[in-house]
Design goal:
The complex is a heterodimer of chains A (249) and B (254). Chain A has a single domain, classed as Metal-dependent hydrolases (TIM Barrel), CATH 3.20.20.140. In chain A, 39% of the residues lie in helices and 13% in strands. Chain A contains 9 helices and 8 strands. Chain A has an 8-stranded parallel beta sheet, with helices on both faces. The longest helix of chain A has 16 residues. The mean pLDDT of chain A is 97. Chain B has one domain: TIM Barrel (Alpha-Beta Barrel). Chain B has a 6-stranded parallel beta sheet with strand order 4-5-6-7-8-9. A 3-stranded parallel beta sheet of chain B has the order 1-2-3. The chains are: A alpha/beta (249), B alpha/beta (254). At the A-B interface, helix 1, helix 8 and helix 9 of A face helix 9 of B.
């Protein structure tokens, strides 16, 4: 909690990534969260194309601290035949509340038809979908405009807000054009002026704080928001107000 | 400690890693000295060690010249860049004769195939070591094996390893263990809990705060460092004390 504002981290991972010394140690994660007033972190597992394996890991992780974590479901069109059934299981049985997609681990641009069953599922239920977005062709955030136009009851979140300048500009344009597109802030680049750009150009009500925990510590990523040259009211929305509204938590 | 939407540091801050000026492919958001000082004021930074962007990929010699316009003799201190050529060595030696060299930053000659080895960099490294001048080495441009083997051949040379990212996560501990006179600059240390873990393992006296502004936003790591289990005295060392000591030629652990 920061000045009575509930803080929600919209971007986190379960599982290990030993190449980068990344591990989902709940004690370390909670320590980082507690040090800067993060109340809830959203987590997902992107390492298993069947969805089931990673979603079970996420559900077990959340179950250890259900007041501090919420889980998102992951599926992949690399195993397209099972996507909707797994989403149904993950949401209805495991209690996961939104969807994470990672186009770089697939062969398709994020607006291609093979993804559409996921978007139809989210559209029917009014769910949020967070994508990895960046400069690679499958993940370009400009493609989110297609999705947002065709599935207006789903909310589409540009993870990393495109990460670097050109895709970030495309993400902002998409958010300006469609009310169901949001921009999430975590990025190892931490480029000066980005938080200000997102808030000033897309609107504070469309920006979501994320950290990429446990790949990265949540503290410097929250620090980007706190030390950004934006109003306190904007910080409240970015740090948690928007996420609470989007997730209904 | 209650967290607030505004932040200012509790301890004096001397930023060990600030870039000024335009890259050849990217203008800086900070156009002049006054804007830099204003940004430092906004984040509660007293002093900064600055180098010029042109030294990164174009010319350390010309870039050092462009740096002069940014210096103010008070809050902005120069870090001269250097590459292992006779012209570059002569430029920095001339500055040293004027009493103006307190640290040097390694230019990346590896991108044209010149490795960081004693046979290629030995004259430069010997001169730096003999004159107790610390060397900043950007890790994004470095090779771990070259660092370990070459710097081991110059054991009295003090180095500051700059910009360790999570992609260097497996390098950091072996290098810090192998190189007792190496310090780690913290601008990109993002792995979960790593700042506290490294300080616990190696002692806070081995670390210096740097923002790597304008490559990175200035305030984020300062905010992080102020929200850890690190003691206030260790925080003071990391944010300014260690850097003062290194720049005074007193960085050796011997």
């Amino acid at each position: 909690m920061i000045e009575e504002q509930r803080v929600i981290d919209f971007h986190g991972h379960t599982g290990r990534l030993d190449l980068y010394n990344g591990a989902d140690d709940p004690d370390l994660i909670l320590h980082a969260m507690d040090k800067v007033g993060i109340d809830v972190s959203c987590v997902f597992n992107i390492f298993h194309p069947d969805g089931t394996t990673g979603n079970d890991i996420t559900a077990r992780f959340v179950a250890e601290h259900p007041d501090r974590f919420v889980g998102f479901a992951y599926v992949s069109p690399m195993m397209a035949e099972g996507m909707v059934a797994e989403l149904t299981r993950a949401i209805d049985e495991l209690g996961l509340v939104a969807i994470k997609l990672y186009p770089p681990y697939t062969q398709w641009d994020l607006n291609e038809p093979i993804w559409h069953p996921i978007y139809e599922f989210a559209n029917e239920r009014g769910l949020a979908i967070i994508f990895h977005t960046g400069s690679d062709p499958h993940s370009h955030p400009g493609l989110l405009a297609d999705c947002a136009a065709n599935f207006p009851n789903a909310n589409f979140v540009s993870g990393h807000a495109g990460n670097v300048a050109e895709p970030r500009a495309a993400a902002i344009r998409a958010a300006q054009d469609y009310p169901n597109i949001y921009l999430e802030t975590c990025s190892t680049f931490r480029t000066p002026g980005v938080i200000e750009q997102l808030v000033n150009e897309a609107g504070a009500d469309r920006v979501l704080f994320g950290s990429d925990i446990a790949l990265m510590d949540s503290r410097p990523q929250l620090g980007k928001i706190i030390t950004g040259d934006i109003s306190d009211e904007a910080k409240r929305l970015v740090c948690g107000g928007n996420a609470a509204r989007l997730l209904g938590i | 400690m209650s967290i607030q939407f505004t932040f200012s540091p509790r301890v004096p801050v001397f930023d060990a890693n600030v870039r000024v000026g335009d890259l050849h492919y990217q203008p800086s958001p900070c156009r002049n000295r006054d804007q830099l000082l204003s940004e430092m004021d906004r984040h509660g930074v007293e002093k900064a060690l600055i180098y010029h962007a042109q030294t990164e990929e174009v010319s350390p010699i010309d870039g050092n010249g462009f740096l002069e316009a940014w210096l103010d003799g008070n809050r902005l201190l120069p870090q001269w860049s250097m590459t292992p050529t006779p012209d570059s060595l002569a430029q920095v030696q001339a500055l040293h004769e004027q009493g103006r060299v307190h640290s040097v930053r390694l230019h990346n000659a590896r991108r044209v195939g010149l490795p960081f080895r004693p046979w290629s960099c030995g004259a430069m490294l010997s001169w730096l070591s003999d004159n107790r001048i610390p060397l900043w080495i950007p890790l994004p441009d470095a090779d771990a094996d070259e660092l370990a083997t070459t710097l081991s051949a110059f054991p009295e040379l003090v180095t500051v390893l700059v910009g360790a990212h999570y992609s260097h996560a497996l390098w950091v501990r072996p290098l810090m263990t192998t190189l007792p006179n190496a310090y780690l600059e913290l601008s990109r240390i993002e792995p979960l809990g790593e700042v506290e873990a490294l300080c616990e393992e190696y002692g806070a006296e081995r670390f210096v705060y740097g923002s790597w502004y304008d490559r990175l936003a200035m305030g984020t790591m300062l905010f992080y460092l102020h929200h850890t289990e690190i003691s206030e005295s260790d925080l003071e060392l990391i944010c300014a004390g260690n850097l003062h000591r290194i720049l005074q030629g007193e960085g050796r652990h011997d």
